[in-house]
Amino acid sequence: MIKITPAHRALFFEFLRFGVVGVIGFLVDNAVVYGTKGLIGVYWAGALAYPVASTGNWFLNRIWTFKGASSDALHVQWLRFLAVNLIGFVFNRGTYFALVASFPFVEGHPVIAVAAGSIAGMFFNFFLSRRLVFR
Fold first, then answer.
1. Comparing C-alpha atoms, which of 94, 91, 85, 89 is closest to residue 128?
2. Total of domains in the chain
3. Per-residue pLDDT tens over the stretch 36-63
4. Is residue 108 part of a domain?
5. Residue 63, burial from CB neighbour count under 10 angstroms (0-12, 13-18, 19+)
6. 135 CB contacts (<8 Å, ≥6 apart)?
7. Whole-prediction pTM
8. 96-105 own/partner pairs: CB under 8 Å, 24+ apart
9. Quick one: which of 128, 111, 133 has its CA closest to 23?
10. Domain limits at 34?
């Protein structure tokens, strides 16, 4: 029988909270993409949406997911969060751009590309954020 330790349980719930924040970020990401794609095109909309959603995710992770885990100044932690999550960004927006470029249906329905990108970057972002940002 596998024994679930309190540390594993805490990690699971931390990841779950991170996932909830990610869903909120996904909604913000989509709102920005759909709100701006008619003005600046689907590629620029995707590029703009990522930092907007990431900033919201950083704030929610700071006050909820990893509450009390860091005493860094806001601007220092925010910049570290953005820098550390560049790896997740590569997977996230790389997936987004690849799908939009490869499938006309996805270009017309970018929610699919946003979702796939979010999943691709989520695991990297969680572990890097936990280790390097909210420590």
1. 85
2. 1
3. 999 999 999 999 998 899 999 999 999 9
4. yes
5. exposed
6. 69, 70
7. 0.81
8. 96/46, 97/43, 97/46, 100/42, 100/43, 100/46
9. 111
10. 22-133
